Amino acid sequence: MTTTVKLLINGEFVESQTTEWRDIINPATQDVLARVPFATTDEVDRAVASAQAAFKTWRKTPIGARSRIFLKYQQLIREHMKELAAILTAEQGKTLADAEGDVFRGLEVVEHAAGIGNLQLGELANNVASGVDTYTLLQPLGVCAGITPFNFPAMIPLWMFPMAIATGNTFVLKPSEQDPMVTMRLCELALEAGIPPGVLNVVHGGPNVVNAICDHRDIKAVSFVGSTRVGTHVYHRASQAGKRVQCMMGAKNHAIVLPDANKEQTLNNLAGAAFGAAGQRCMAVSVAVLVGEAHDWLPDLVTKAKGLKVSAGHESGTDVGPLISCAALDRVGSLIERGVSEGATLSLDGRNPSISGYANGNFVGPTIFDGVTREMSIYKEEIFGPVLCVMHAATLDDAIELINANPNGNGVAIFTRSGAAARHFQEEIDVGQVGINVPIPVPVPIFSFTGSRASKLGDLGPYGKQVVQFYTQTKTVTERWFDENDVGTVNTTINLK
């Protein structure tokens, strides 16, 4: 009998009563791993009600007690790293090494949450007027919710609920219905670490559950990571319902290569950033802009890409695993066809690779297009596959102008030995996250994820210092204490003296 994924409501893993289910498929084999329910409206309401009830006591839990839970949680994640990576690879497809990286980058946020005592600090001004002090408190909002994508089923849930809960909120999580199993194992470990019943809840589903989260009157804030189409819908619907919303969305990340860059290091970085995780990450380098004589490096880049091993994620030596689904495979194949028909040069065709033992897998090998222009579909759309578009620019300023004209602003990188060029680049580029000889500039959690423009809706990022602001409200208190023997007089002015 196929395993069923449970809901988490009020500290209990419960069987859904829904009639709508979806199979969780191993993308390398098409084997059915489990079935996930699409939660009913009543089940979503129960999860939110559980979180609402738990908030009354959790918000008053001492900050040190909250911190110690996350100290225990990070220890449990470390102890179960191999198990978590194996689950993730089976349902999502990425290599075991990449899966461990997925878990580890989430673990870093858990470690940051354990330091909440130093993060959730207010401010105090003594004697702002005669005998008057003013101070601020950062207080939790209430029930918060998160909607996460398929491509990082460990990291992105760990971006969300640890910081929300550490700041005193309770949480309702909706993982991707395509690969929720590693997320659920992380939730089991969170309960083992000491998170009380109702503080963390999980519901599964599709658009109906997303809309229920956006509309629910008792949810105060929503965090989303995923496609631009869905993120825009979530932002507007949840904002209109009066919630705080942050949406990290689609991207078209460029890497500029100057002729003075270290050639071997640059090519290795480009290949890893473009084709790692089968290109299924919002920070993947999907466009390489070769400046001047760096255009001559294209044959070497193609050779580097040809040397990458395409296979199931758990196989030794695999560099590129399968795409998440048959639908994703069809979409990437269709975009490659459009690239050819629109006039790009297919320097490396990764379609229909022969993978021994995995004839039914959703595989596309590294694919490189040359001569790509701004008008082509493969440039305008986020492919979300192992496809690299190569463009050319005569100068650094031409490359900067090209990138700034693109509507997305998630990440960008430059490869150069010139400090002057790098400084000019970081000053002039209009993108939220900049890498200098770093192809995927995702910041560590003491900073915040700062994608911009069409890649982001909402002012505050999903982890780091910004997320403490997102998950708290500032209360300002102005106080004066009188000596019992003082006799006051009537003061009709607003100026305290």
UniProtKB/TrEMBL annotation:
Domain of life from the UniProt record: Bacteria
Q: What class of enzyme is it?
A: oxidoreductase
Gene3D superfamilies associated with the record? Aldehyde Dehydrogenase, Chain A, domain 1 (3.40.605.10), Aldehyde Dehydrogenase, Chain A, domain 2 (3.40.309.10)
Q: What EC designation does it have? A: 1.2.1.27
Keywords, sorted A to Z: NAD, Oxidoreductase
GO MF? methylmalonate-semialdehyde dehydrogenase (acylating, NAD) activity
Residue ranges occupied by any Aldehyde dehydrogenase domain in the UniProt entry: 13-477
One of the GO biological process terms: thymine catabolic process
InterPro entries according to UniProt: Ald_DH/histidinol_DH, Ald_DH_C, Ald_DH_CS_CYS, Ald_DH_N, Aldehyde_DH_dom, MeMal-semiAld_DH
**PANTHER family named in the record:** MALONATE-SEMIALDEHYDE DEHYDROGENASE (PTHR43866), METHYLMALONATE-SEMIALDEHYDE DEHYDROGENASE [ACYLATING], MITOCHONDRIAL (PTHR43866:SF3)
Q: Report the family membership.
A: Belongs to the aldehyde dehydrogenase family.
List the protein's name: methylmalonate-semialdehyde dehydrogenase (CoA acylating)
Species this chain originates from: Pseudomonas matsuisoli
